[in-house]
Write a structure and sequence with these properties.
NADP_OxRdtase_dom; oxidoreductase; AKR; 8-stranded parallel beta sheet; single chain; 10 strands; two-stranded antiparallel sheet; alpha/beta; binds NADP nicotinamide-adenine-dinucleotide phosphate; globular
């Protein structure tokens, strides 16, 4: 199941999604995005996570085309931004994202944040896009349990993915359990806590045993926890480093030690209290 960085989890609709991918938040459109995406695909990555609000979909699309990797072998995710939420405006936003990416379908389209009073209409638009065959899977991001419960009351199609902040300081046990029970694949954003956890003693000590860096230990902990992960880097040596996690296995005790670092601490906004 976790053989290499092309290994996949099967979403509840049968679509395969790689456990591992490249995130491109704060990657500049143009050369930086093109090069990061090309470096990742050259080194075996098969999943790229972007969003309309990252303003780099053109660069991502160009990187995909220039990589020479066939489109059907790449899993591309994008997200509808908050100001575009609502039924018609989401359909338009989807078209605009596809156009910028230069693609004719997406693998996964997510509601970026649960905008109050809007996310149900947004979800109906995602259901339409899915039924029309324009996207292979649909999901949400930054949804707490109560957001999911509310959405599921009216949804025809259950989200296939929930992408949320997740790292050893924010292990989201309740949400993860809920997602698991409902067949919703849990996906981590800011898995490295944006670099803030790389000098942690517990993690580094575990890394020494396997001759792995702290980043590699954390990312291995993600996938062994059943969590899809999409670390961001624009540096090829780190892009390679981050993905070199399929040749060692953390013990149960080591997994527990990392779990115990949880402090329910966020580096991003709380989905119950965001102002963008
Ligand atoms: N849905 C959402 O609301 C949401 C929110 C945030 C993020 N995301 C997604 O999740 C992805 C990942 O999250 P993130 O970008 O916030 O943070 P992250 O992946 O936790 O950390 C990225 C930071 O760590 C550095 N880094 C990466 N690998 C490293 C390594 N091996 N050693 C040392 N430093 C390393 C990167 O710098 P360099 O680039 O200089 O290497 C960058 O500064 C995003 O890119 C985006 O796709 C989604």
């Amino acid at each position: 199941m976790l053989k290499n960085l092309q290994s996949t989890t099967v979403l509840h609709n049968g679509v395969e999604m790689p456990w591992f991918g490249l995130g491109v938040w704060r990657v500049e459109n143009g050369k930086e995005a093109v090069n990061a995406v090309k470096a990742a695909l050259k080194n075996g990555y098969r999943s790229i996570d972007t969003a309309a609000v990252y303003q780099n979909e053109e660069g991502v699309g160009q990187g995909i085309r220039e990589s020479g990797v066939p489109r059907e072998n790449i899993f591309v995710t994008s997200k509808v931004w908050n100001s575009d939420q609502g039924y018609e405006s989401t359909l338009e936003a989807f078209d605009a994202s596809l156009k910028r990416l230069g693609l004719d379908y997406l693998d996964l389209y997510l509601i970026h944040w649960p905008v109050k009073g809007k996310y149900k209409d947004t979800w109906r638009a995602l259901e339409k896009l899915y039924k029309d065959g324009r996207v292979r899977a649909i999901g949400v991001s930054n949804f707490h349990v109560h957001h999911l419960e509310d959405l599921l009351q009216d949804a025809e199609i259950k989200p296939m993915v929930n992408q949320v902040e997740f790292h050893p300081r924010l292990t989201q046990l309740e949400l993860r359990t809920y997602c698991k029970e409902h067949g919703i694949q849990f996906e981590a954003w800011s898995p490295l806590m944006q670099g803030g956890l790389l000098d942690n003693g517990v993690i580094s000590e575990i890394g020494e045993k396997y001759n792995k860096t702290a980043a590699q230990v954390i990312l291995r902990w993600d996938i062994q926890s059943g969590v899809v992960t999409i670390p961001k880097s624009i540096k090829e040596h780190r892009i390679i480093e981050n993905s070199d996690i399929f040749n060692f296995e953390l013990t149960y005790e080591e997994m527990e030690k990392i779990d115990a670092l949880n402090e329910d601490k966020r580096v991003g906004a709380d989905p119950d209290n965001f102002n963008f």
